[in-house]
Design brief:
Bound molecules: iron/sulfur cluster
Number of domains: 4
Mean pLDDT: 92
Strand content: 15-25%
Low-confidence stretches: 89-93
Distance between the termini: 57 Å
Strand order of the largest sheet: 7-6-5-8-22-21-20
CATH class of the largest domain: Alpha Beta
Helix content: 25-40%
Radius of gyration: 24 Å
Number of strands: 22
Largest sheet: 7 strands, mixed
Number of helices: 19
CATH topology of the largest domain: FAD/NAD(P)-binding domain
CATH superfamily of the largest domain: FAD/NAD(P)-binding domain
Shape: globular
């Protein structure tokens, strides 16, 4: 017997710390951790102690004899990883924490998503450190609330980790306060020994093809924010009258968007999807979603767990023409002699299984097309999207090139999901070339290659670029916390000159009224109560004013 990690794995690696035999890999100490799709348990080494089950924030681990039927493929996926990945990592090493001064340290964290919380978790362990967390929205948890797909409730279990942090006596929320608008960086630096920015906003990368701005051509960020009830996107209107939708890109967000478009709305009605989105999806005509990848299956960016989970979407067929599964020469040869990376080999195996699976008359469909890049989005009546022109590519010398052969896909909606870009943050320098805030080990520099700004730190996508999920953000937040602790120990953090007790009055003078833990708990309880009546996890408030009213604070001046 052995334990098995399944699709919901969030890579947060809490399980790694408790495994007595170090059989969960890659560990955060191993280079592969940075790019791993998920973590895996070595079935040869696991002693079935069960310690990891309690520790996993998203309940992704099962003993193999209790594995749900849908997760059985993960037995092989876990075992396959150890065929070609060295798992002899030795004991997990944690650097010895520096000896801290007895003096108090006040830290402001800007942002309330995963990187912010993992940094806070490290800092509030120290009694003499207090953390104030700022976010422009009245609700915390960032992309866990507004990015994780509503039908992935298990992944949202990581909120329990964050809820344990917010309860600490040395932690304070100042939600609904926008740094740069209601309080400046200079004002924060007067009040806190360290200011950590972990508020990377996601903006879609553009395709750079004609027709990209036509009505019906949509960014995945907007669509995801809309169906997740993010206040920034709730007023958007999407026309789903077309039978076919095209999703451009093939990462996990592309799969989320494709799946949500064809999932039975009655299934979605049991999730925390926004009510306005559910209403539109109920009236949707979309029966087929075509997912386009510029390169072949071996380079698909979605994870095997997400790809496999499409099989469990009721009433939906995954359709892959076997001719779409062309490999590069190198990958084909490596697959033949069993030397291809096991994660890529699994992706190819799953795609081949999908391509052979029977289809069911009347089912909705997700159709994968590989080696297919959009070259133009064409407008029809009223200039709305009417088709997408696609160039077929081929592998040449390890890369892809256009064949010159094009095809047209008739559709009324084209969603682009080809990655993100980071925008500059108010009051902080920006490295235009690398699209990040310039930093060394999370310490913000006054310019790219310049000097550190004492007491100013950065974590998350604004620090390293817009890649990686919860696990990567955990590492990133912990690295930032380690740098803050090191600078505190060294005595190089600036001494605050103003007590932050005045922040509430200061921002109130600018129209903002902070939501504290009690306020957030009132919002949380009201959402859960509304959800319980409908058999749902929660029903989200989607208006900032409504959230603030429930929290018991006045609306922010000037906000709708
Ligand atoms: Fe490690 Fe015990 Fe989990 Fe097996 S069951 S992976 S030995 S913690």
């Amino acid at each position: 017997m052995a334990h098995v990690i399944t699709r919901a794995c969030c890579n947060d690696a809490s399980c790694v710390d408790v495994c007595p035999v170090n059989c969960i890999h890659p560990t955060p100490d191993e280079p592969e951790f940075l790019t791993a799709e998920m973590l895996y348990i070595d079935p040869e080494a696991c002693i079935d102690c069960g310690a990891c089950i309690d520790e996993c924030p998203v309940s992704a681990i099962y003993p193999d004899d209790q594995l749900p039927a849908k997760d059985e493929p993960f037995l092989q996926i876990n075992a396959d990883y150890f065929k070609d990945h060295d798992a002899d990592g030795g004991l997990v090493r944690h650097p010895k924490p520096p000896k801290l001064p007895d003096a108090p340290l006040r830290v402001a964290i800007v942002g309330a998503g995963p990187a912010a919380f993992y940094a806070a978790q490290e800092l509030v362990r120290k009694q003499q450190i207090s953390v104030d967390m700022y976010d422009r929205l009245p609700t915390p948890y960032g992309l866990v609330r507004a990015g994780v797909a509503p039908d992935h409730a298990q992944t949202k279990g990581v909120e329990n980790t964050f809820a344990a942090v917010e309860k600490k006596a040395n932690f304070t929320y100042r939600l609904g306060v926008e740094v740069g608008e209601h309080i400046t960086l200079a004002e924060l630096r007067e009040r806190y020994g360290a200011v950590l920015f972990a508020s990377g906003a996601a903006h879609d990368r553009r395709l750079g093809v004609p027709g990209e701005d036509l009505p019906g051509s949509i960014s995945a960020t907007e669509f995801v924010g809309w169906y997740n009830g993010h206040p920034d996107w709730v007023d958007l209107r999407f026309d789903l009258s077309s039978e076919t939708a095209v999703v451009i890109g093939n990462g996990n967000v592309a799969l989320d968007v494709a799946r949500i478009l064809v999932t039975d709305p009655d299934e979605l009605a049991t999730t925390d999807i926004a009510d306005h989105a559910l209403e539109v999806l109920r009236a949707s005509n979309v029966r087929e979603v075509v997912v386009l990848g510029r390169r072949g299956i071996e380079h698909a960016a979605f994870t095997n767990g997400e790809f496999l989970s499409l099989r469990d979407t009721e009433g939906v067929d995954v359709v892959i023409d076997p001719d779409e599964l062309v490999l590069s020469e190198d990958a084909a040869a490596a697959l033949d002699d069993d030397s291809l990376d096991s994660v890529i080999a699994t992706k190819i195996r799953l795609a081949r299984e999908f391509s052979e699976a029977p289809q069911t008359e009347g089912n909705r469909r997700i159709v994968f097309k590989f080696l297919s890049a959009p070259t133009e989005i064409i407008g029809g009546d009223g200039d709305r999207v009417s088709s997408v022109t696609v160039m077929r590519n081929r592998y040449v010398d390890g890369g892809v090139e256009a064949t010159g052969r094009t095809e047209s896909i008739a559709t009324g909606i084209a969603l682009r999901s080809v990655g993100y870009r980071v925008e500059p943050l108010t009051d902080l320098p920006f490295d235009e070339e690398r699209s990040v805030v310039p930093n060394v080990d999370s310490r913000v520099l006054d310019a790219p290659g310049g000097d550190p700004i004492p007491g100013v730190f950065v974590a998350g996508w604004v620090k390293r670029g817009p890649t990686g999920g919860i696990g990567r953000n955990r590492m990133c937040g912990e690295e930032a916390a380690a740098s803050i602790l090191a600078d505190f120990a060294e005595g190089v953090l600036p001494e605050p000159t103003v007590d932050p007790a005045d922040v509430t009055d200061l921002v109130a003078g600018r129209g903002a009224h902070p939501v504290d833990l009690d306020g957030w708990k009132r919002i949380d309880a009201a959402e859960r109560e509304a959800g319980a009546g409908q058999g749902r996890r929660r029903v989200k408030f989607v208006s900032v004013d409504e959230m603030k009213s429930v929290a018991g604070v006045p609306a922010t001046a000037g906000e709708a």
